[in-house]
Amino acid sequence: MGVKGYIMQIQPFSVNDGEGIRTNIFMAGCPLRCRWCSNPEGFEQRELVGWYERRCIGCGACAAVCPQGISVDMNADGHESCIACGACVSACPEEARTRMASLMDADDVIKEVHRHRLFYSYSGGGVTFSGGEATSQPEFLDCLSRELYDSGYSIDLESCGYFDFERVRPSLERMDLIFMDLKHMDPELHRKYTGVSNELILENIARLGTLRHPDEGSDSGNGKSPEIVIRIPVIGGVNNSEENIAASAAYVHEVLPEARMELLPYHSLGRIKYEAIGLPFDQEDFYTPDKAEMKKLRSIAAAQGVVIADYR
User: Fold this and answer.
1) Rounded to 5 degrees, what are φ and ψ at 282?
2) pLDDT of amino acid 217
3) How far apart are CA 91 and CA 33, in angstroms?
4) In the prediction, which pLDDT does 224 show?
């Protein structure tokens, strides 16, 4: 096929990101820098090797094969010099060195998806594109989504919503379900915590209602619409105020009356990834809302007329 892109992980047997059993394709690159991000290895579009110090036994096998002369302690001198050749990954007996993003050919991605086709058929599942941000590689996403759509797979997308809508419209219209994040209604607070304002995201959420599946054998776009779920990652201390949740739900109900909403509590499970790639974990200000608070916030959203979804 010849089209290549940067993949963080191809994760089979997922049940939280769409209907049935799914394979999640995590694509690297993201225009946002959310301070609570749990996948920092997906910030950039590049090959990346990480080091899990807690697994390391200090045997020196990695250093012995490294063409850059990087020592066992990758955090001391290695992340900037690493060319992600993977020699240390193959040499490490404890998997302390690991590939966190790789350049892959679309054909190889499709072959990996095909391996689990039986599970999709029996469960009503399929494939979900995630990230990073899948739309940050528009040509790669177009190629993969077209091949999978033409092969009859159910395909979904998880997106931060910050993209050129018309550039990725063909990919969006192939989706059965689109999850799009709405992180904050205040544009300045959105910029403070993610690095960008929310204007483009709000505009793109509204434009989701214009999508139509392509007719078989054409790109006329006269078929049914993809299902839409607007997700709020609820970050304690950032966007968990009742006013913000109510305003978010009111906006969604106004511009996409048929869309559902899902509220997901913050977690800090990405901490180990920050350690692996030598980045500081700057999330001490945040907390996870408890079950009672999440229940209340979901009821506030529902009071605005939206239907609450739950894929967890």
Assistant:
1) -105, 65
2) 44
3) 33
4) 83
Domains in the chain (CATH in brackets) are 4-42+105-308 (3.20.20.70), 53-95 (3.30.70)
Q: What percent of the chain has pLDDT over 90?
A: 89
Mean of per-residue pLDDT scores for the chain? 94
- CA dist., res. 48 & res. 40, Å (int): 11
Q: What is the pTM of this model?
A: 0.93
Strand order in the sheet with 48-51: 48-51, 97-105, 4-14, 22-27, 126-131, 154-159, 177-181, 227-234, 260-265, 307-308
Give the whole-angstrom CA distance, residue 253 versus residue 25: 30
The residues of the chain scoring below 70 in pLDDT are: 1, 215-223
Question: Which residues does residue 102 pair with via DSSP β-bridges, in sequence order?
Answer: 7
- Return d(Cα 15, Cα 310) in angstroms, integer: 11
Separation in Å, CA 188 to CA 182, 191, 204: 14, 5, 18
